[in-house]
Amino acid sequence: MSLKIQNINYKHSSKFSLNNISLTFHNNVTAIIGPNGSGKSTLVKCILNIYKCDGEMYYQGESIKKQKKEFIKQKVGYLPQTTQNDASITVFEAVLLGLINTLNLKVSKKQEQKVNDILDAFELQHLAKNKINELSGGQLQMVSLAQSIIKEPEILILDEPLNNLDIHRQFSLMNTVSSLAYEKKMIVIIVMHDINLTSRYADNIVVMRDGNIYSYGTPKEVLTKKMIREIYKIDSEIYVNKQGKQVIEFVDIAAEAPKYEIVSQI
Ligand code: ADP
Ligand code: MG
Description:
- There is one protein chain.
- This protein folds into 2 domains: 2-84 and 151-218, P-loop containing nucleotide triphosphate hydrolases (Rossmann fold, 3-Layer(aba) Sandwich), CATH 3.40.50; 86-134, no CATH class.
- It is an alpha/beta fold.
- The protein is globular and about 85 Å long.
- The chain is 33% helix and 28% strand.
- The strands form 3 sheets. Strands 6-7-8-3-9-10 form a 6-stranded mixed beta sheet, with helices on both faces. It has a 4-stranded antiparallel beta sheet with strand order 2-1-4-5, with helices on one face. Strands 11-12 form a two-stranded antiparallel ribbon.
- Helix 3 (91-100) packs across helix 4 (109-121) and helix 3 (91-100) packs parallel to helix 5 (137-149).
- Keywords: ATP-binding, Cell membrane, Ion transport, Iron, Iron transport, Membrane, Nucleotide-binding, Transport.
């Protein structure tokens, strides 16, 4: 399984553009990190055809340029960075919508079972009859995730899914998506900020800066003191734990490099 994007270019305005992005995603977990405004959401929206960008996309080696809309609809699950919670439908109905796209159809026993299974797995069953506009931010986030994966898409794109979640739910979500990647051979692309969680869960990491790829590789290759200083302007220490994963300790905001040097004193 592979999704390849090649020479993706997109211009929002004279102030921001995505520049010639080429990447290959596999059936594992790729994390996209980078500062606010570096173009992470713009990149995933280009992949999702929400923004019409220049460039090529290949799935399993074949170009999907001509049928991109259909391809996205059939194969891709997406959790946007901000989810809407103004609809007064129940949690059960919201998750069901991920499966059937409309609530007018009669729901089969099998579909009902599928929704119940996912509600159980996500510890949401007790909220099934609640209206989604009455949920907490974290609960809504879990409902939206359930909605985006219920169809078992081949590609799952999550834009900052850990926002609003307590630590237990952050781990639970990451465990769920990584087992989807390994057991169902799903390509998972996940925009996130928590570098220690990327170290633990990501197979590959893309670091973005100003609409460009700053670096790409395994956590070992990408998570360096130099990257953290250059991208986030933070000094850090990096250790390796018993599982062989890097653990990053953030020390402080990095001191600015002096703009000029005093050559002699008088
Ligand atoms: P990130 O997800 O990394 O925080 P975004 O991809 O959302 O960053 O945004 C990248 C840049 O593009 C930012 O400077 C942002 O202000 C700008 N931008 C995002 N969306 C739009 C838009 N719809 N129109 C114009 N500029 C936008
Ligand atoms: Mg974003």
